[in-house]
Write a structure and sequence with these properties.
Blueprint lengths: L1 H27 L9 E2 L4 E2 L24 E7 L5 H9 L3 E6 L3 E6 L1 H8 L4 E6 L15 E8 L5 H10 L3 E6 L2 E7 L4 H7 L7 E5 L4
Antiparallel strand pairs: 1-2, 3-5, 3-6, 4-5, 7-9, 7-10, 8-9
Length: 210
C-alpha cells in the first residue's frame, strides 16, 4: 500500500514537472514577428495585423514637420536587445518609456523615424497620438483633480504655463507631476493633450479618491 502511494506521488510530481516545463517553454516563446500587441494605458492593438485603435475626434495628429522632433512608438520584433536600442540611439532618436510588448516611446524627427523603420529589428513605427496620453481611468464629467505627467527632457515650467493657459487650475506641481482641476465635459483636457503633443508630451490620469 505504501509502495503504491509512493509510486503515485512520484508520478504526480513527474506530471507536474512536465506541465511546468511546457508552460515555461510557452512563456519563453515570444509571439511571431509582427504579432505582438501594443499595450497602452488607453488602448491595445496589434499594428502588425493592420489594427489601429479608435481615436476620438481631435485627439490625433497628422504628423510632424520635417526636422521637428516629436513622439513616436517603435516596436521591435521580440524581447528587446541592448544592441537594438543602441541602433535606435545611433540614428539620433531618444528612447523614453517602455511600452509592452517589445516597444518604446521614442522622441525623434520624421527622417529619423523613417530610418529606424528600416532596421531589421523593428517591425513597426507609428505616431504617439494625443489620445494615448489620456489614461483609461480618467473619469469623464464633473470638475475633478487630475495628474499630468510631463515627459523627461521637456521644459516643466513652460508646460505648467501651457496647462494654465488652457483654463485648467494648477493645484500643485512637484517636478514633472502637475495636479490640475479640470472638467472633462469641456475641451480643457483635450487642449491639455493636443497642445502638448509636440513640446512636452503630457499624460493625464485621474487622481485616486481618498
Amino acid at each position: 500500500m505504501a509502495t503504491n502511494i509512493h509510486g503515485r506521488l512520484l508520478t504526480a510530481c513527474a506530471v507536474a514537472m512536465c506541465i511546468g516545463i511546457v508552460l515555461s517553454a510557452q512563456q519563453a516563446n515570444p509571439p511571431a514577428r509582427g504579432q505582438a500587441i501594443i499595450r497602452l494605458k488607453s488602448a491595445e492593438f496589434t499594428p502588425g495585423r493592420g489594427e489601429e485603435p479608435r481615436i476620438p475626434p481631435g485627439l490625433a495628429i497628422a504628423g510632424y514637420a520635417a526636422g521637428e522632433r516629436g513622439y513616436f512608438i517603435v516596436q521591435f520584433e521580440g524581447p528587446v536587445l541592448e544592441t537594438w536600442k543602441a541602433d535606435v540611439a545611433a540614428a539620433g532618436a531618444e528612447l523614453l518609456d517602455y511600452i509592452p510588448d517589445f516597444a518604446f516611446k521614442v522622441r525623434m524627427n520624421p527622417a529619423q523615424a523613417a530610418r529606424i523603420a528600416r532596421l531589421d529589428s523593428v517591425v513597426w513605427v507609428g505616431l504617439f497620438h494625443p489620445a494615448y496620453k489620456i489614461d483609461r481611468d480618467v473619469i469623464r464629467g464633473g470638475v475633478r483633480p487630475y495628474t499630468v505627467r510631463i515627459e523627461r527632457g521637456a521644459d516643466a515650467a513652460a508646460a505648467a504655463a501651457m496647462i494654465a493657459a488652457t483654463g485648467a487650475q494648477v493645484l500643485q506641481r512637484e517636478g514633472p507631476i502637475v495636479t490640475v482641476s479640470a472638467p472633462l465635459s469641456d475641451p480643457v483636457p483635450q487642449r491639455l493633450c493636443t497642445g502638448s503633443a509636440r513640446r512636452s508630451s503630457m499624460t493625464m490620469r485621474s487622481v485616486p479618491a481618498g
